[in-house]
Each structure stands twice: as structure tokens, then as C-alpha cells.
């Protein structure tokens, strides 16, 4: 569904369903769509000059904009007003890519919809997939970003080794590893405070190896339990992201 009108008739658009785009900024008052999005807007959605669209540059702010010029592969727009500002997610995830690309991309899609800051694909001892194309993942994230009218675009990192991830994790004040091990005490996921900067490690099929869990603990990661069930990698990532999302919403409701 699209909303067509002029800026003169624009009043309150926060809850109007319109086409949302991940855009590029020209200056404080205008921007433009990518070549692919421009083609989609003009040829598929049949939008034109004067039509209203929703845009974000991935920095948290969602704008109401009006198409100001159209060419074959270039749509430009003028910013009319802010629709809203999305609170920046504080949760980052390190996820082992699954053997099936589709399952890993479900994790990317749903965690983007729920809201995460950064995603680190990690290669672990039990990983069945050792590579993942970053550009492919970015396309999945962009589609989810547009579908769910997000303000923040998660940053998808290049694949890295488990040990390299542990070094990066040192910068996070809260860091956790979700593992099935009974060898060490673990926190319940419900006890976590995920509206503070946090990094959560999600393992591959077969879980983290014992040596990886020990290395993580030595690096300051706390072991967490996601419940009594054995969850798929993508389900675990969605569960953690959903908790962080609920905590943000609860805090925002208390503030208001």
C-alpha cells in the first residue's frame, strides 16, 4: 500500500503505511535512492514527482519525504519532516553461519526487524560453513530494514575466527556466550540487562566446543542459558534479539 499526496496535505504520518527506503544523504534537506530502489519506485510502484515516501539513512531517524525529481535510474527527494527516531539498539550478536544459507539469513532478517547494532559472523570449531558473503547478507538486511520501517541499519561485519571475535569482545562492558554446557554455572537469559551495550555469542550446529567455552570465560564472557530446549542457531539469535527489543520497549514506556 502506498500513500500519495503533496507536502501541503501532510499532517501526521507516523502510522500511515507507505513505502520505506534505505536512502543516501545529499544534504540536510534532500537525498536520493539507490539505482535498484529508484527502478523499483518508478517502474514497479509507479511513484513519481510529488509522491510521499518514508526514508532513513540508517542512523535512527525516519523521515517523511517527497519525490522531487525522477530519472531512469535516479530518484531524488526532499525531506519534509521527521516521522520518528528509533532508539539505538545496544545488542550486538556474534553468530556462527549455519550449513544452510537460508537459515542464517532468517537470523539476519529477524534480528534486523527486532533491532540489533552489529552482527559478527564467526567461524567456530564445529562450524559446517566456513565462509559467508558479506554483500549477500547486506541485501538481506536491507530488505528487512525496508519491510519493517527501521531507522537503524545493523552493521554486518566480515566473517572472522572465534579467537579474533574474543579480542573484539573486550570492548563490550557486557559479554555473554550462549552454550549448552553444564560444566559451568550459567545465567538465565531473563536476568540479562540488554539495553546496555552487550555482545552475545550464538554457536553453530553442535554448539561451541569445550575449548571455545573455556577461552570465552577466560576473556570475560559469562555463560548464559537460553532455556531447557535445544534451539537452532537462528532461533537462539531471534530469542536474544526479541528480549532486547522487549526491554527497550518496556524502558521507553516507563519514560513516557
Task: Give the C-alpha Rg.
Answer: 20 Å
What spatial form do the alpha-carbon principal axes imply? Answer: elongated
Provide the domain count: 2
Topology pattern, helix = H, strand = E: EEEHEEEEHEHEEHEEEHEH
Q: Which percent band covers the strand fraction?
A: 25-35%
Count of DSSP H/I helices? 6
Q: What would your notes on this structure say?
A:
A hairpin with a 4-residue loop joins β4 and β5. The protein folds into two domains: about 5-85, Hypothetical PUA domain-like, domain 1 (Ribosomal Protein L25, Chain P, Beta Barrel); about 90-255, Alpha/beta knot (3-Layer(aba) Sandwich). α2 packs across α3 and α2 (about 100-115) runs parallel beside α6. It has six helices and 14 strands. The strands form two sheets. Strands 7, 8, 9, 10, 11, 12, 13 and 14 form an eight-stranded parallel sheet that branches. A six-stranded mixed sheet has the order 1-4-5-6-3-2. With about 260 residues, the protein is α/β, with parallel strands linked by helices.
Could you list some keywords that capture this structure?
single chain, 256 residues, Ribosomal Protein L25, Chain P, Alpha/beta knot, 30% helix, elongated
Amino acid at each position: 500500500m502506498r500513500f500519495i499526496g503533496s507536502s501541503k496535505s501532510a499532517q501526521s504520518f507516523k502510522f500511515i503505511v507507505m513505502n520505506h527506503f534505505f536512502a543516501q544523504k545529499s544534504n540536510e534537506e534532500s537525498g536520493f535512492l539507490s539505482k535498484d530502489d529508484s527502478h523499483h519506485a518508478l517502474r514497479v510502484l509507479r511513484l513519481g514527482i510529488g509522491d510521499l515516501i518514508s526514508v532513513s539513512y540508517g542512523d535512527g531517524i525516519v523521515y517523511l519525504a517527497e519525490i522531487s525529481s525522477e530519472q531512469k535510474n535516479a530518484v531524488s527527494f526532499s525531506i519534509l519532516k521527521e516521522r520518528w527516531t528509533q532508539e539505538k539498539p545496544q545488542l550486538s550478536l556474534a553468530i556462527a553461519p549455519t550449513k544452510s544459507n537460508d537459515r542464517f539469513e532468517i537470523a539476519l532478517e529477524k534480528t534486523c526487524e527486532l533491532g540489533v547494532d552489529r552482527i559478527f559472523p564467526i567461524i567456530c570449531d564445529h562450524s559446517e560453513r566456513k565462509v559467508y558473503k558479506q554483500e549477500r547478507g547486506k541485501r538481506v538486511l536491507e530488505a528487512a530494514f525496508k519491510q519493517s520501517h527501521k531507522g537503524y541499519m545493523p552493521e554486518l561485519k566480515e566473517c572472522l575466527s572465534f579467537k579474533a571475535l574474543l579480542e573484539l569482545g573486550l570492548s563490550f562492558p557486557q559479554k555473554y556466550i550462549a552454550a549448552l554446557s553444564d560444566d559451568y554455572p550459567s545465567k538465565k537469559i531473563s536476568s540479562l540487562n540488554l539495553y546496555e551495550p552487550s555482545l552475545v555469542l550464538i554457536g553453530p550446529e553442535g554448539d561451541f566446543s569445550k575449548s571455545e567455552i573455556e577461552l570465552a570465560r577466560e576473556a570475560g564472557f559469562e555463560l548464559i542459558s537460553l532455556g531447557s530446549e535445544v534451539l537452532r542457531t537462528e532461533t537462539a539469535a531471534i530469542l536474544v534479539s526479541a528480549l532486547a527489543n522487549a526491554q527497550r520497549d518496556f524502558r521507553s514506556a516507563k519514560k513516557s
